[in-house]
Amino acid sequence: MNSDIDNPEGLELSQIDIHELLPQQEPFVMIDRLVYCDKTVTLAETEIRNDDIFVENGHLSASGLIENIAQTCAARIGYYNYIHKKGIQIGFIGAIRNMDILQLPPVGEILTTRVEVKEEVFGMTLAEATVSWRNQVYVTTEMKIAVKE
Question: With helix as H, strand as E and coil as C, how does 33-91 read?
Fold first, then answer.
């Protein structure tokens, strides 16, 4: 998949190193790749590894799921800035609402995180997010992200 965001260079998402889109650095990076990005929907994938900072007892923790969602939001902004040759922006979680953790995903699974932007105003983004693997949904939530200009 690619993107329908105005992309003057015609870059494929698979050509972009995720580290060029995120302010986080290892070992804190919680997504492996951006697989789709348009003006409202972003999809990212990550494999849960045993040595991930947020893995506890063989499962990704709730904190890891939250960070994964926040970084998917950050990758969306990072991708837009990357193709428009702007720097990486720092974002902050402003609020988390209606979080429903159905199950913690085990090590070895490749998660798909889907973030859909519902509203953007004054540097704040309200998004709905789902983290899943195949047909198994692990978490749904709403998240507000504030971006530092």
Answer: EEEEECCCEEEEEEECCCCCCCEECCEECHHHHHHHHHHHHHHHHHHHHHHCCCCCCCE
Closest Cα partner for 136 from 91, 104, 93?
104
* pTM value > 0.85: yes
Q: Is 125:73 a contact under the CB 8 Å cutoff?
A: yes
Question: Residue 45 and residue 13: Cα distance in Å, rounded?
Answer: 12
Q: Kindly report, residue by residue over 76-135, the tens digit of the pLDDT.
A: 999 998 988 898 888 889 999 999 999 999 999 999 999 999 999 988 999 999 999 988
> Within a domain: residue 8?
no
The total number of structural domains in the chain stands at 1
d(CA 97, CA 37): 23
